[in-house]
Fold Apolipoprotein N-acyltransferase.
Amino acid sequence: MASGASLTLAFSPFYAWPVALVALALGVRQLAKLPGNGFKAGWLFGLGWFGAGISWVHVSIADFGGLPLIASVALMALLCGYLALYPALAFYLTKRFFAARLWPLALPACWMLSEWLRSWVLTGFPWLSIGYSQLDSPLQGWFPILGETGVSALLVALAALLAVSSDRASWLRASLAIAIAYVSGWVAGQHNWVTPHKTYQVAMVQGNIKQSLRWIPEQDAPTMKKYRTLTEGLWDSDLIIWPEAAIPKMEYLALDYLAEVDARAAQENTALITGIVNYNWESEEVWNSLLVLGKADSSDESGHYQYSHNNRYAKHHLLPVGEFVPFEDLLRPLAPLFDLPMSSFSRGDFQQRNLLANGIRLAPAICFEIAFPRQVMANVHHNTDMIITVSNDAWFGRSHGPAQHLQIARARAAEMGRPLVRATNNGITAFVDHRGQTISQLAQFEAGSITAPITTTRGMTPYHYFGDFLPGGLTLLLLGLAVARQRRSQH
């Protein structure tokens, strides 16, 4: 549990990336030393990993869920106990079927399998995957090649090699492998997989609206006025971005306001992207959306907005409880946590057209969606200029959740070789370059704006081209070697 809990220090906002290798090695070492089939060792490791790493979920439950402390702690324990099942599965499969000396070959494949399951079972929760911890290490150079998934597998292989070392020769071999992995990652990071294309001046607004005020009708007008006021000095930008649900009214109730912003943006020769909620009276469906106001193409002479125009994006990957409630007839009456405002959204399509704003093509992801690389990849095309992600992390207070969220977004930029713009309600609003490095960011819990020149790119990274087939194929190859050696030793 202690080694798992220490993993938190490897992630943002602590950035102690060497801790990840050491913590994993200690976990695998305990796997070898503890009796049993490995399931308990993996589960305890996972319990520490998620118990400390996603402790920010407790802020959402305790502050906004309306549950007493004992109930919120119990829910957190249940969630962490569930997530710990996945490393438990990886540890179990590895110890059950392979001798310890073969774990460096077998564990990466078992780990990838368990993490793949974690990414889609019960809609998926791939948060805090260990590869993210290496985004600021020399292994960063492997992100455009292997993706975060592959970096996780590489880290697990190195940790297992370190863990099973028992004499001077094996320690030297492990040290050499680690040195090669990190040095080659640094070398790979010097290569440009994509080429610069055009530079645009982009601005983002951070309203810093308290979560307790976001869906109070009396606060609609002050919130909308605040965003207009904060935007006044930004109209000379090529693109302006407001965060998730920045406009707190349903779209059909905000048509006059949207028309005004649309006309102003077109008059100023720019475009504005904002988050808003849309409701269809006929189908009774609700979408968490992004829509474009002002100029769609740079050659347009007027704004193009009209209700239900197709230059919009509807969130696909919804957050359980926060945006949809499973078994809602049973759960909603139990506690305020299961009956939060805006918790009955409908899903948009997995793959949608890029937003077109003043001639700039943007691949969108709303909040939690940025943690799903395959979905982001499906929406980044050869002519996509940048990735846009918007969020409202006010749910997480002053915890380390928002910092982890930004780190996840940075990984998508590095994987796809595209710059990323991230607008949030109360932080962390940031610009990220195509290598996943933060260009500039706004301080949390402050209302304000930020501008930066963003250079778009063309071309495809190996990970964008091959996806998880490359790291998956490599781990299967290692697994095949482990199986062959295991059978040879048994005969």
